[in-house]
Amino acid sequence: MTDPRSLAWPPAPIRTERLVLRESEARDRAAVIELNASPEVGTYLGGPQPRDELERTVPDVPGRSPGWFAVELDGATIGTVQLKPHNPELPGSRHRRDAGRTELGYLFLPGAWGRGYATEACTAALDWFTGAQPGEPVVLYTQTANAPSMRLASKLGFTERERFEAWGAEQWFGVRSSVTPSA
Ligand SMILES: CC(C)(COP(=O)(O)OP(=O)(O)OC[C@H]1O[C@@H](n2cnc3c(N)ncnc32)[C@H](O)[C@@H]1OP(=O)(O)O)[C@@H](O)C(=O)NCCC(=O)NCCS
Fold this sequence. Notes:
The chain is of the alpha+beta class and about 180 residues long. The chain has a single domain (about 5-135), classed as Gcn5-related N-acetyltransferase (GNAT) (Aminopeptidase). It has five helices and eight strands; from the N terminus they run E-E-H-H-E-E-H-E-H-E-H-E-E. It has helices at about 30-35, 50-55, 95, 115-130, 145-155; strands spanning about 15, 20, 70-75, 75-85, 100-110, 140-145, 160-165, 170-175. The strands form two sheets. A five-stranded antiparallel sheet has the order 1-2-3-4-5, with helices on both faces. It has a three-stranded antiparallel sheet with strand order 6-8-7, covered by helices on one side. Strand 1 (about 15) and strand 2 form a beta hairpin. It starts with 13 loop residues before the first strand and ends in a 7-residue tail after the last strand. Coenzyme A binds next to strand 5, helix 4 and helix 5. The site of coenzyme A has 20 residues, from strand 5, helix 4 and helix 5. Keywords: Transferase.
């Protein structure tokens, strides 16, 4: 298995029906701060981070790593999709650590929820990843209480491998085996 850090990066911007996925730029900084400071976004992610701390610590160009996509709608950043190295430090079994080396994450601003943008963006990112690293599985963690995220994981083709307790809540661990990119 290969690591997402070995991806050829950046790709050309990926255009979907309504969105553009692209590498990070300085203009994404405000959205990244908003995503991390938002109580709604942080509900199942350990809570929001203090805005003043984010203003101090978020780099001028946030998210500069292979697999980190800013998601743009009509020129505005509405969220991020990340294909990142599966964190081997996470508490858990060897079984989970060996399931895949790439993990999907997604964060969207609340104003953009409920319109299918996350599904559209994640599908495009996963299709790109499958083209770049054919045969590589992708793993996903989410709290089971995070119903929109659970629905999204299912729509994207992740299937449950395990539920476990960590960080004070029940966690869901799923895997998406490599499939042919959608047309
Ligand atoms: C997880 C998260 C991305 C899901 O967002 P979402 O808005 O529910 O997901 P989508 O953008 O794909 O929208 C899907 C919803 O839009 C609806 N929808 C409306 N118009 C649509 C369209 N044109 N196409 C597709 N779906 C559409 C769907 O029916 C669906 O509603 P439902 O979930 O009630 O069935 C969002 O809740 C979020 O950013 N949460 C905070 C971060 C987080 O918890 N991340 C998880 C980390 S693992």
